[in-house]
Fold this sequence. Notes:
By secondary structure, this protein is an alpha+beta fold.
Amino acid sequence: MEPQPDRMKTPAFLADLGKPTLRGIKKCPKCGTFNGTRGLSCKNKSCGAVFRDGARKQQPSVDAVRIVTGSSSQVYSVRLRDRGPDYRGFVELGTTEAIQTVDGTIITHITGRCLVPTCFKVSSQGGAENQCQHIKLAVECHMEATPHTLKSSVLNSLQVTTETKQAIWTLATESSGPLVQRITKTIMVVKCKASPKHSLGFLHVSFHEKTRTKGVMEHKFHCSCQAFKASKSSTSKEETPKHCIHFYACVCAFASDEKLGQEFSYFINFDSVVASQPIDESQVNLSFQEWLSSVTERINQTMHYQFDGKPEPLVFHVPQAFFDALQQRISMGSKKKRLPNSTTGFVRKDALPLGTFSKYTWQITNILQIKQIFDTPEMPLEVTRSFIENRDGTYELFKCPKVQVENIAEAYSRVEKQPTIRPLELKTFLRVGNMSPDQKEPTPFIIEWIPDILPRSKIGEMRIKFEYGHHRNGHIEYREQQTSPEQTVELSPTLTTVNIH
Length: 501
C-alpha cells in the first residue's frame, strides 16, 4: 500500500493578513473617528468636519478665481503650482484681440499682465505660446470669488483704536468693490493701499486651523502686507503677535455673517483669547470741540423739513468749564466779554433740584456769529439743509453728489437741447435776524444758561431755542405749528420768577 501524501493545512479565514495597519483610513482631527482617506467629511454626523472641499476640487479652474472689482478691470487670483496650494498671486487681463493670419485663420488673443513676483510677464502680442502659466490659468478661469459685506455696527464695536476703524472704513469706501472676498476655504483677498508690491490694490491673507500632536489646535494667520511681521499666530497667552489692518478687516467681515462667524470664531475672539488690556479710565476724556460737535449735530438734526420749524428747546447738561469756553466763542470779535441780554432769578419749590437759581440769556441775531460759535472742524453748522420727498409724504436728507466738470464742447452742444428739468427743491433754513423787509423785530437765536444745577459736580443746564423755515422751489412755505403728544404734557415745574437788575 502506497503512503498517502500529507494534506496541506488550510489557514483560518483572513488569518494570514499580517499585522493590521492604518492604510486607507485616517483619524478625524476634530472628534477622533476613523474615516476613509477618500472621504470628503467626517462620517460622524454630530462632528461634521470637512476634510476637503470636493465641489471645488472637481472644478478644473480652481487654480484661478476672478476677483470682484466693481469695475471693468479683470483681476484674477492664481495659484502658484510650483509652491503649493497656499501661495497665490495676481493676474490682470486686458482687451481681447483678434489676429488674422496669412491663411485667413483668425486667432483670438487676450492681453494680460502677470504680477506674480517670480514671473512678471506681459503678453501683448502673439498667441498662447507667449503667455505664462499664470495668464493661461486666468484666461481659462470660470470661477468668481465670494464677496462678503461689512456691517458698520460690527466695525464700530471692534476693540481697536479709532484710527484703525477709520482706516478700515476708508479702504472699504474709497474704491469700488467689496473689502473682503473669499477665494478658497482658507484664503481671502482684501483691498489695500496701492504700492509697488501691490499695484492692483489687493493682497492675499490666509487663515489656517490644524491639529498638532496631543490634539492641540493650532491657528495661523498670514498677510502679505509689509506691516505683518510674523507669519505665525501662536495660541500662547504670553505672546502678542502683531495684527495688521487687513486682519481686522477680515474679522469684521466674519463677524458680519453668521456662518462665517462660526467658522472663524477663534480669530473673531482672538484678542479676548490672548493681549486684551483693561481700559485706563484716566485716558478716557472728551475735548471741548468733541462736545461742541455733538451740540452742533443736534442743531443740524433738528432742522428737519418734516416738522413745523418751531422745535422744543434743546436741553444739555454741561460742565462749567465747557460753557466758559462756549461763552468765549459768544464774545468772539469783541474786546470785552459779551454780557447776557438778560439775567433772571427763579425759585424752584416743587421739583428737584430745589433752591434759588439764576438764568442767563444771550440773544444772537447775526447768522455769521451763530456759525462762528457752533462751527467745528468735524461738524460745521448747516445754515440750510436740503431734503427729498418720498412717495409716502415723508422727507429725508438729500446729499449733494460730486460735481463733474464737463468739457466746453458738451456745454455748447447742450444749448440746442431742451433745458434740463430741475428737481423739486426742498430746503430748511435757520431763521436768524430780519427775514423780510417789513419785519420789525429780528428773530433771535437764544442760548440760556443755568449754572450749578449739580453744584458739587459743577454741571449746569444749557438750553438752545431757535426757529427755522422751509423753502419749496425757492419760495417760503408757511406752516402751522404741530402739537406732538410730548408737547401736551406739562414737563416743567411751576417757577416763581423775579428779574435781577
